[in-house]
C-alpha cells in the first residue's frame, strides 16, 4: 500500500484488533511512527513491526502527542496519531487540525474513522440507537458544567436517545447523579438504560437497567451509558428502540 | 474462524471494503447467506465466494429482508444481514431484534458495529464532531415531522453540533429548508456547514459552506449534512470544532 499522506489520524475503535477498519490496520502496519496514549498503543502493539517507532505518553498529555505527531510528519516521517473510538469524537483529530491551521504547517492529513463508543456499546446492548440520538460528554474539564446541563435538559425534553461519555470518575461523581435527576423529570423511571464497561476489551461487562435504578457506583470512566427514548423497551434481554416499522 | 452465532447483523460502513471492520470482513466471507439491500450487496460483492447465497431486495423492503434473514438463521444457516453505515443507527438491527423478540425465536445474534455516516462524513470534513453532537434523520416516513422539528429546535437551542441523515429527496424538499430556518434563529448565519455526498464511495463530493448559504438543491438522499456549533470554524479548508485545549 502506497502511503500518500504525511499524517494519518486514526480511530482504533473500542480497542481490539477485530473492530478496527481494514484501512486503519494496513496504515498502522506501514507508517514509520505511531503516536498515542500508552494504553491505546498497547491495544495495537500486536500489529506493529520492529522497525516502527512507537511514541506514547500518559493521560492529559494530548497536546504533547499532537505536537510530536505533527512535528514528525512535517519532518518527513509517515506518522499515525491514534485515538480510541473515533478520532473525530472528543479525540485527536480536533487538536491536530487546530495546531496545523494555527501554525500553517504544510502536511497532508487523512482522518481514518473508527467505531466510537456509542455505536460499539449499542451493538452489545441490542439496538438502542435506532432513532435520533445525542452524544454528550459529562467531563467538565474542558466544558463548563452549566453548558453540559443545558444540553442534557434539551436532550431529555426532546426525547433524544442519549449516550453519555466520561460519565463518572473517582473525583467526579455529581454529574451522573444530576443527569439522572434531569432525565427523571422528562422521562419515565422505567426508561431502559444500558451500561457497558470496557466495551470490546478484556473484561467487558454490560448491564441493562432503568433510569430510576441506574447504579451510579458501578459507572466509571471506562463506561458508556445509553438512556433510551420514550419508546425504548427491553425484550429478550436486548434494549430496542423502535424505528416505526410494522413488525 | 469459528462462527458461533446464527445471525450477524453487520454495518458495512460507508460502502467500500477499506472502511469495513476486520471482523465484519471475515464474517461476511464465511457465512452461508448474506441478506441486504441490493446496492449494499453490490458494495461487498467482491469479497463473497461462489458457494455463498446472496439475497437482496429493493428500497423500503426492510421487513422482507429481516424476515428472510431471521427465517434462514432459525432454519440452521449462518446468516449475515447487512446495513450501510452502522446497523444500529436507523439500520437493520432494530427491526431484527423486534421480530425475534415478538416471535420468541431462539437464535443467537451478534451485531457487528460499522462506521456510521456522521463519523465517515466528519473524517473527510476535518474535525467537526469534536464536541457534543446529535444525529437526526429528516425522513418523515416513519416519524411525524412535528417530532423531528421539536428535536431540531432543541439541538439548535442547546448548541449541539448537528448531523442530518436523509436530509432531502426529490419528493421531500421542505424539511431541509425548515431546518435551516430553525438553526438560523439560534446560530450565526456564518456557522460552518459541511455537505458530503456519497461519502467513501465512488463519486464522493464534499463542500464546506455556511448555514445561510447552504445550497439546498445540492443535497439529496445520499448526502450527509453537518452543522457546526457556535465555536466551530473553518481553517486550512477543514471544519474544526474546538474541544477546549490550549493550542
TrEMBL record, chains A, B:
Gene3D superfamilies: Cobalt-precorrin-4 Transmethylase, Domain 1, Methyltransferase, Cobalt-precorrin-4 Transmethylase, Domain 2. CDD domains: Precorrin_3B_C17_MT. Keywords: Cobalamin biosynthesis, Methyltransferase, S-adenosyl-L-methionine, Transferase. The keyword Transferase applies. Transmembrane segments: none annotated. Residues 7-214 form the Tetrapyrrole methylase domain. InterPro entries: 4pyrrol_Mease (IPR000878), 4pyrrol_Methylase_sf (IPR035996), 4pyrrole_Mease_sub1 (IPR014777), 4pyrrole_Mease_sub2 (IPR014776), Cbl_synth_CobJ/CibH_dom (IPR006363), Precorrin_MeTrfase (IPR051810). One of its GO terms (biological process) is cobalamin biosynthetic process. Pfam families: TP_methylase. GO terms for molecular function: methyltransferase activity. PANTHER family: COBALT-FACTOR III C(17)-METHYLTRANSFERASE-RELATED. This is Precorrin-3B C17-methyltransferase.
